[in-house]
Design brief:
- This protein is α/β, with parallel strands linked by helices and 455 residues long.
- The strands form five sheets. Strands 2-1-3-15-6 form a five-stranded mixed β-sheet. Strands 8-11-7-12 form a four-stranded mixed β-sheet, sandwiched between helices.
- It is globular and about 75 Å long.
- 51% of the residues are buried.
């Protein structure tokens, strides 16, 4: 917990040069960038991009405006929690780099601790006038926002979909271009797949063994599909109706013999679900685009699927029924990702924002991707770099505009575990009402009582 961090004497990286004039019209500026990446170690390619592409080009661009810029990179190659603690200590002591890379899920926690301020407060009007916002969907901007204010610019992101095996679908008499419009249509497809011997119709992550994958691939997409959010209007979701609806779908899948409840309890259950899908033993699987890129990739996937491109279909996750999702949506998703933020203590906030914007320009993002097909926050870049990747283009164009994010708050990981426990209860035979009641009680204990929970 950041608030509990002890103040320590540390030499923080200075924000800008002490003898330089502050302000917008400074002719000599000193800026620093920090990220949890280091050449030859963790996220090496990202560190190289900053050192070899960002810094020299930004310095050159400033020189063309008559400004002498000195930009340095402060690398790290540590565990994410260690990196987070270092940033918190830096910000607390009014030090640290001018531009910092953070996990999107830390933003709210840093804001509540008083470490971050909205971009427009730090850098003025230029922050809202930046051209890049028009290329980043509002839903994706949510990754760097907290309580409707922008604190950072999102890096790459991802999205969740339903994957399905077209060969099994053909055998079960289901369409090759399947797109369910409600939860009932998923259950109906599962019922048809149940007739196939040796096939698990639906794999929906449940339980604590799968950890955060249960929340991100299962519970949270269903929750937003039922019109609920895990944290909204200053309260955490308790055993309310959307939570009950979500748990009810788990009881129907696992109680109705459409899913394998034992798989959810195994320590390596998620990996096993990957290999079973690749072997044609699972009909429908809820997962992120990571599954397509890194798991069943025919070249170097961890569960290679030679016929992936012809045998695997993908569909958007439907709301419980049309219009029942958050914001009145027909389809939903969940996403994660990183963000770059501005240090509110920067001596050159205007130029720090220029550096941040430069890193997130179309040119900068393309250089960072270095020819790799990955989903960026920018639609214009995605259109170009994903042109030969229909699945990733599908996520970028269809899924990202309807996605949602986890609340960036310190207590979220504990609430997430309570949610995972509730799905385990529903998958192992408890009723949705029983699982929701136990979950409500658990959450109240985590977040400081019933007053902080919507029930």
């Amino acid at each position: 917990m950041l608030a509990a961090l002890t103040a320590v004497a540390l030499t923080a990286t200075a924000c800008g040069g002490p003898s330089e004039p502050a302000g917008k019209d400074a002719k000599n500026i000193t800026l620093t960038i920090s990220a949890n990446s280091i050449v030859g170690g963790k996220n090496s390619a990202g560190a190289e991009w900053i050192e070899k592409w960002v810094i020299p080009r930004f310095v050159e661009a400033q020189k063309a405006k008559g400004v002498t810029a000195k930009v340095t990179f402060v690398p790290s190659g540590v565990d994410d929690e260690q990196y987070k603690t270092k940033l918190a200590l830096d910000l607390r002591s009014k030090g640290g780099a001018d531009v910092m890379a953070v996990d999107g899920i830390w933003v709210g926690e840093f804001v509540q601790a008083g470490y971050l301020k909205p971009l427009s407060e730090v850098a003025g009007d230029q922050a809202d006038a930046w051209e890049g916002w028009s290329q980043i969907p509002d839903s994706v901007q949510g990754l760097g926002s907290f309580e409707d204010k922008r604190y950072g610019i999102p890096l790459g992101t991802d999205g969740r979909v339903l994957y399905y095996n077209k060969k099994l679908f053909a055998q079960a008499g289901l369409p090759a271009d399947w797109q369910p419009k409600s939860w009932q249509e998923i259950l109906d497809a599962g019922t048809k797949l149940k007739a196939l011997p040796g096939v698990t119709p639906i794999q929906l992550n449940a339980g604590t063994a799968m950890g955060e994958a249960t929340s991100m691939q299962g519970a949270l997409p269903l929750l937003v599909g039922a019109g609920g959010e895990i944290w909204a209007d200053g309260k955490w979701a308790g055993g309310n109706q959307p939570v009950k609806d979500m748990l009810d779908l788990y009881t129907k899948i696992y109680g109705g013999g459409l899913g394998d409840p034992k798989l959810q309890q195994e320590a390596k259950g998620r990996d096993k679900s990957f290999s079973e899908f690749a072997a044609g033993k699972i009909g429908i699987l809820a997962e992120g685009d990571y599954f397509w890129r890194a798991v069943i990739n025919p070249k170097d996937g961890i569960a290679k699927m030679a016929d992936r491109d012809t045998a695997v279909g993908y569909a958007m996750i439907p709301a419980k029924q049309p219009g029942a999702g958050i914001r009145g949506q027909d389809f939903v998703s969940m996403s994660g990702g990183g963000v770059r933020v501005l240090n509110p203590n920067s001596k050159f906030p205007s130029q720090a924002f220029e550096l941040l914007a430069f890193m997130h320009s179309a040119e900068g993002v393309k250089a960072e991707l270095a020819g790799e097909a990955r989903i960026s926050a920018r639609m214009d870049v995605n259109k170009e770099v994903l042109a030969g990747e229909p699945m990733l283009s599908f996520v970028a164009e269809k899924v990202l505009p309807v996605t949602a994010y986890r609340p960036p708050l310190a207590v979220y990981p504990q609430v997430s575990v309570a949610l995972q426990e509730a799905t385990a209860a529903a998958a192992s035979g408890k009723s949705a009402a029983e699982a929701a009641a136990a979950y409500q009680k658990k959450v109240e204990g985590i977040v400081g009582g019933p007053g902080n929970v919507s029930s």
